[in-house]
């Protein structure tokens, strides 16, 4: 029954990756089953009063892949294409990401099928509050802690916190992470994922013997992850030659002024018609020459069709699941692209979310320098662990990252034993 509900190409991709790793690790059948399938699938109908007076029912999901190593942790996504299978795949990847980073969490993910860009602030608030209420019995600081993802932001987290507080009768800041600073969010959380992507991409360049100041980067997506990846790379001296968003691409071989583009996007809501670059087809942009290619928007954008045409040295996966298994095989055959797999590359977000949760429990605030220093230490440790495991076992970085993570979860399950 559960398997039929999860029929979805993104879940199939996560499951295929899992099966390859389980074979490599020679996981016994019982542990394989227990690690692969999600513990809880929660789907709810969310009726919302729209501004025109009508009522629309949205469908929301929350998947808790495992609670073996702690509460589940993972984002909440608002996008028209959200469905249960996609959310389950993202929850599975979150599980491996938390284990790889050695955070005391299992993986979760949530989403509501909606188009946030076509909704008013009031409609989004009512949607978020009603969804929170519907899943109230299944969330809590020790059960399931949400965070922003595509289409959601710190305002969404503030509404969830307030709705939860109306239920408990007092403020519980550790119910979500990625909150505004004024509501006990963490310094450094907004830029954490993009900072981590840029930090690891620069690590990879060092490994390849390339100097940051003569390198170029293309970033797909200019939301939370993409904009901070571009800004941090730019601060390192990397020239950003290409950027895209849902409305198209920008190309400037002389370098795009990222700060000016952020100001432009804040005013216009899109990168379209930015005067500091030429327009380019967003898909064609992926295959333009560059040193770092950072897909930081959607899943399955590096495919069997374009993997052979990529002209980058480092593929820094800011998005979750940007590379299909077919594309992965092509990249491995090519052997000339250093892949930083998603569960490692974009782990900065959940790592600083963990810091936020810890600060909330301690009722204490760290400053930005403390947060970024701790983040870089943890990202460096995970990067070194993955690259040395891959070299030692002569496997891809993705296989190495997932093997370390899945073994960590399988070992925890074996240690805890089976109840009853
Ligand atoms: P976001 O909603 O802030 O931004 C998404 C960006 O992608 C927008 O600029 C949008 O215009 C762009 N986009 C959409 N369709 C596109 C297309 N066809 N071509 C080019 N750009 C397109 O989302 P985000 O939080 O930045 O998340 C992006 C990805 O990173 C997702 O896969 C998400 O799961 C992953 N991720 C996010 C975080 C986080 O902390 N926010 C952490 C880890 C992973």
Main beta sheet: 7 strands, mixed
User: From the coordinates shown, what is the CATH architecture of the largest domain?
Assistant: 3-Layer(aba) Sandwich
Helix content: 40-55%
Run of helices and strands: HHHEEEHEHEHHEHEEHEHEEHEHHHH
DSSP E strands, number = 12
Oligomer: single chain
CATH class of the largest domain, anyone?
Alpha Beta
Measured by DSSP, the beta-strand proportion falls in: 15-25%
Can you list the strand order of the major beta sheet?
9-8-7-6-10-11-12
How far apart are the termini?
A: 23 Å
Ligand set: nicotinamide-adenine-dinucleotide
If you average the pLDDT, what whole number results?
97
Q: How would the global form be characterised?
A: globular
Poorly predicted runs are none
Protein structure class: alpha/beta
Structural commentary:
This protein has 420 residues and is of the alpha/beta class. The protein folds into 2 domains: 2-174, Rossmann fold; 192-345, 3-Layer(aba) Sandwich (Rossmann fold), CATH 3.40.50.720. Helix content is 47%, strand content 17%. It has 15 helices and 12 strands. The protein has helices at 2-5, 9-25, 29-36, 84-100, 121-134, 154-168, 189-207, 224-235, 258-268, 282-285, 325-334, 342-345, 348-362, 368-393, 397-416; strands spanning 40-49, 55-64, 72-79, 106-113, 144-148, 216-220, 239-245, 248-251, 278-280, 292-295, 314-316, 338-340. Helix 4 packs across helix 15. The mean pLDDT is 97. The site of nicotinamide-adenine-dinucleotide has 24 residues, from helix 8 and strand 7.
């Amino acid at each position: 029954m559960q398997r039929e509900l999860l029929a979805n190409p993104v879940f199939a991709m996560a499951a295929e990756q899992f099966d390859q790793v389980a074979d490599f690790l020679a996981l016994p059948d019982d542990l394989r089953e227990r690690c692969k399938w999600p513990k809880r699938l929660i789907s709810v109908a969310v009726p919302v009063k729209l501004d025109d007076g009508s009522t629309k029912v949205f469908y929301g999901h929350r998947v808790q892949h495992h609670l073996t190593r702690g509460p589940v942790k993972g984002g909440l996504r608002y996008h028209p294409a959200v469905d249960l299978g996609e959310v389950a795949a993202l929850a599975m990847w979150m599980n491996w990401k938390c284990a790889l980073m050695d955070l005391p969490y299992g993986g979760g993910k949530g989403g509501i099928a909606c188009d946030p860009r076509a909704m008013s602030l009031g409609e989004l608030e009512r949607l978020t509050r009603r969804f929170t209420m519907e899943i109230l019995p299944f969330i809590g600081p020790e059960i399931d802690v949400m965070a922003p993802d595509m289409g959601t932001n710190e305002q969404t987290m503030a509404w969830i916190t307030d709705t939860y507080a109306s239920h408990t009768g007092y403020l519980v800041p550790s119910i979500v992470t990625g909150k505004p600073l004024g509501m006990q969010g963490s310094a450094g959380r907004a830029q954490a994922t993009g900072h981590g992507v840029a930090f690891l991409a620069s690590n990879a360049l060092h490994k390849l013997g390339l100097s940051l100041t003569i390198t170029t980067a293309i970033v797909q997506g200019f939301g939370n992850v993409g904009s901070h990846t571009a800004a941090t790379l730019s601060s390192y001296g990397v020239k950003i030659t290409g950027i895209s968003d849902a409305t198209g691409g920008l190309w400037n071989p002389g370098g795009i002024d990222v700060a000016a583009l952020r100001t432009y996007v804040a005013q216009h809501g899109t990168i379209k018609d930015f005067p500091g670059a030429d327009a380019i087809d967003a898909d064609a942009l992926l295959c333009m020459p560059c040193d770092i290619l950072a897909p930081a928007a959607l899943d399955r954008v590096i495919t069997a069709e374009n993997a052979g045409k990529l002209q980058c040295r480092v593929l820094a996966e800011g998005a979750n699941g940007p590379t299909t298994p077919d594309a992965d095989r092509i990249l491995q055959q090519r052997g000339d692209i250093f892949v930083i797999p998603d569960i490692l590359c974009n782990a900065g977000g959940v790592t600083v979310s963990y810091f936020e949760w810890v600060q909330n429990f301690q009722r204490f605030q760290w400053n930005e320098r403390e947060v970024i220093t701790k983040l870089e230490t943890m990202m460096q440790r995970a990067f070194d662990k993955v690259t040395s495991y891959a070299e030692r076992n002569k496997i891809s970085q993705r296989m190495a990252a997932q093997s370390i993570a899945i073994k960590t979860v399988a070992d925890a399950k074996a240690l805890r034993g089976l109840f009853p």
